[in-house]
Amino acid sequence: MTGPLLLRLPFEGRWLTQNSPARRVPSHGVDVLGQRYAVDFVGVDERHRTAAVRDWRTVLGTEPAERFVSFGRPILAPAAGTVVDVHDGEPDHEARRSQVALLPYALGQAARLRRGVDAVAGNRVVLALPGGNAFVALVHLRAGSLRVRVGQQVAAGDQLAECGNSGNSTQPHVHVQAMDSVDLGVARGLPIGFQRFREWPRRGRPLARDGGMPGEGSIVEPVR
Predict the structure, then answer these.
(1) C-alpha dist (Å) from residue 44 to 79, 95, 166
(2) Where are the alpha helices (DSSP H) in 12-142?
(3) Closest of 65, 177, 171, 180 to residue 124, by C-alpha
(4) DSSP string covering 73-103, please?
(5) C-alpha–C-alpha distance, residues 94 and 92, integer Å
């Protein structure tokens, strides 16, 4: 492969970019489970908020996943391909913005990793791209929302599922990664970028981009 795989953003509307490989590689601080070039997107509203409500639970406890803009938003196929893996049935747990709630959750990371891929990725869809040499995984999907089955052919833009908070996720978001194997347990990450989007950087004016990886903390919206 001579350059990054160029995908469509797997959603409509505006989303916040987190753990972007434009900031660092490995983007999530680890190479395990094919995550080297992975990126996270958190849905936002017209005021670029991930949730409209902030109360005592935001500061001291956990919050319902339904409170967040991302939760239940459609997740779309970022490219044409064949569904080669699906997993459903992992619960959507409560979200955590509070440092009080995040600390014990962080201490449980090693235990979740020992439990295996399902405990970390949660509900997911994996697509094989044409040629069979690259696979794209979309993870942390909403329980019960998967619309596809193994062997199904999908076109770019087809709805695969809804955004959820399953697996190793502190608030509803979609995690996107490309890799060289359908098996996340042995996969190595592949570089990716996205086609045609509008980007609101953390500093400066909005940009119209034909392709690339959004910067850390920027807001993005696909241009179809």
Answers:
(1) 23, 15, 19
(2) 56-60, 99-107, 109-115, 117-121
(3) 177
(4) -EEE-SSSEEEEEEE-----PPB--SHHHHH
(5) 7
Cβ-based neighbours of 86, under 8 Å, separated by 6 or more: 124, 125, 126, 146, 148, 149, 150
**Domain count within the chain:** 1
Give per-residue pLDDT as tens, 81-93.
999 999 999 999 9
Residues 6+ apart with CB under 8 A from 77: 8, 10, 127, 154, 155, 156, 157, 158, 159, 160
Find the domain containing 88 and state its range: 5-222
Stated pTM of the model? 0.94
- Tell me, what CATH number does 164's domain have? 2.70.70.10
Q: Is residue 20 classed as helix, strand or coil in its secondary structure?
A: coil
Q: Are 111 and 196 in contact (CB under 8 A)?
A: no
- Residue 154: strand, helix, or coil: strand
